[in-house]
């Protein structure tokens, strides 16, 4: 081979030669128990990073504006939003909070308006329309905590499986 070809091969093969070094442990030397524990650790990380659950099993939205929401989807695929207390354990009473938004793909979003529920749902804002089909639904909510408060926009994806 010509020297230029050898240099080219060496440069192309270098990333592959070092790729295995980035992996932080050797699966061949790992026992089955260690491997199972390792996999379990990743599952826990994924749970915490991707889907924080609220007290009703719904999606938690922790706003930078200082409030926390829980979004639950009912069997009719309507979004049910509850404002939570500082401990993220219980619903707070609805006063002047309002929410509008959209769900689904940008090309065909479902526009949502939320109304206060009745009786047992007095502290719940319920969407007027069902969420679009799919297991992963992008949602944008525009939230006002009081009539004269600045609107806060929250974007997230609901995982409905």
Word description of this protein:
The chain is built from two helices and eight strands; from the N terminus they run ααββββββββ. Helix content is 22%, strand content 33%. A hairpin with a 4-residue loop joins strand 2 and strand 3. The chain is α+β, with helices and mostly antiparallel strands and 161 residues long. The radius of gyration is 24 Å and the shape is elongated. It has an eight-stranded antiparallel beta sheet with strand order 1-2-3-6-5-4-7-8, with no helix packed on it. It folds into two domains: 48 residues; 101 residues, Domain of unknown function DUF4426 (Immunoglobulin-like). The termini are far apart. Keywords: Signal. This is DUF2796 domain-containing protein.
């Amino acid at each position: 081979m010509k020297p230029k070809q050898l240099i080219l091969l060496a440069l192309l093969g270098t990333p592959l030669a070092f790729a295995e070094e980035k992996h932080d442990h050797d699966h061949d030397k790992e026992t089955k128990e260690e491997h199972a524990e390792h996999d379990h650790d990743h599952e826990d990380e994924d749970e915490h990073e991707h889907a924080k659950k609220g007290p009703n099993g719904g999606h938690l939205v922790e706003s930078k504006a200082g409030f926390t929401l829980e979004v639950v989807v009912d069997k009719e695929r309507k979004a049910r939003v509850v404002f939570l207390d500082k401990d993220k354990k219980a619903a707070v009473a609805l006063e002047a909070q309002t929410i509008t938004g959209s769900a689904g793909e940008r090309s065909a979003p479902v526009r949502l308006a939320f109304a206060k529920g009745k009786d047992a749902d007095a502290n719940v804002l319920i969407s007027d329309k069902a969420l679009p089909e799919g297991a992963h639904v992008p949602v944008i909510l525009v939230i006002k905590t009081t009539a004269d408060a600045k609107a806060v926009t929250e974007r997230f994806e609901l995982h409905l499986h």
